[in-house]
Design a protein that fits this description.
This protein has twelve helices and 14 strands. By secondary structure, the chain is of the alpha/beta class.
Length: 343
């Protein structure tokens, strides 16, 4: 069989080698969240030759994303594309030899079993909140799927790999999701673009080690980097003998702590998710809303700007999820949604 020259430099590296590259080609990786971290991870793993990528994101593109989210362009914003579809379009141009599955969806306890099925070899964290990470941790522990945690705030990076049954899990590390307002977010501390690339580099090296079958090369423990100060530290982590997830109790998978409403980081927006699965006819909804303001539908979502609320915008997805932009007030967002959607 003729060797693929695309990956020749990577296969030359002794840590990967030709056998490791062949394993990558047969691997399936899921990336949850396609913001700064997830977008860069998807680009890295597509170029590395991971055979199948499932990329999952709930959000639509905004101009503020372009400072650090490397897969997207101004044209994607003009086209009103969800991040998952814009990323799919770009990654298909980067590597046409791999399979890409894009999903526009919020990851919840209701759908995560279907989104992250047993056939995945790894899950990559591209999220921006602890609740979703604890949910990923639960499903990864239940299905014995390795995953890599990665987070960036300001210029500070945290990352470590999780091998269910072997290493401490994310809940061993964090315990419970911290109370709202108790930790910095991208709203309060910002995000330095180069820190994202360093974080993804650290995380994706661990991903490649796992997929290439070189788990013995993993250096376990939490990596912490302050890129601005030039500090790089590693801390050992210990299994918590009372960790519910390690003991087979999956609280977040059972729905604990998952709110139906959430303020979106850096967006002056609120997301509201229906309590159960729903299906919305976007075409019919567009016809109903068009007398009340500006309606911009596409195959993936509907945007609506009410005539009597010019600073506001509703984005409605077929699964019933809605993003109300123009307010951070949960009560106000629910009222707006009830007014126009009756729910």
């Amino acid at each position: 069989m003729t060797e693929n020259p695309r990956y020749s430099r990577q296969a030359l590296y002794a840590g990967i080698g030709k056998p490791g590259q062949a394993r990558l080609a047969k691997s399936r990786a899921a990336i949850v969240g396609l913001g700064a971290l997830g977008a860069a991870a998807a680009d890295t793993l597509a170029r590395a030759g991971v055979g199948t990528l499932r990329i999952i994101d709930r959000d639509i593109l905004e101009l503020t994303n372009l400072q650090r989210q490397i897969l997207y362009s101004e044209q994607d914003i003009k086209d009103g594309l969800p991040k998952a579809k814009a990323a799919h379009k770009r990654l298909s141009l980067v590597n046409s030899e791999i399979e890409i599955e894009s999903v526009v969806s919020d990851v919840t306890a209701v759908n995560i079993d279907d989104l992250l099925d047993d056939d995945f070899d790894i899950i990559v964290d591209g999220t921006d909140n602890f609740e979703t990470r604890l949910l990923i941790n639960d499903v990864a522990m239940k299905k014995k799927i390795p995953w890599v945690y990665c987070g960036v705030i300001g210029a500070s990076i945290h990352s470590f790999p999780i091998l269910p049954g072997e290493t401490p899990c994310f809940r061993c590390y964090i315990g419970e999701a911290p109370p709202p307002g108790s930790v910095d977010t991208c709203d309060t501390a910002g995000v330095l673009g180069p820190a994202v690339l360093v974080a993804v580099g650290l995380a994706c090296v661990d991903v490649l080690k796992i997929l290439a079958g070189k788990t013995e090369a993993l250096v376990h423990g939490l990596q912490m980097v302050d890129l601005w100060a030039g500090r790089h530290r590693r801390f050992g982590l210990k299994k918590d003998s009372q960790c519910p997830a390690c003991l087979g109790q999956y609280d977040y998978l059972d729905g604990k702590g998952r709110s139906a409403e959430a303020r979106l980081c850096g967006r002056n927006a609120v997301q509201i998710h229906p309590g159960e699965k729903a299906t919305i006819d976007l075409k019919a909804l567009a016809e109903r809303l068009s007398p009340l303001g500006v309606v911009e539908p596409n195959p993936f979502l509907l945007r609506f700007r009410p005539a009597d609320w010019p600073e506001g915008e509703l984005t409605i997805f077929p699964d019933g999820r809605s993003i109300i932009k123009g307010t951070n007030d949960l009560s106000r967002a629910r009222s707006v949604l009830a007014r126009f959607l009756g729910s």
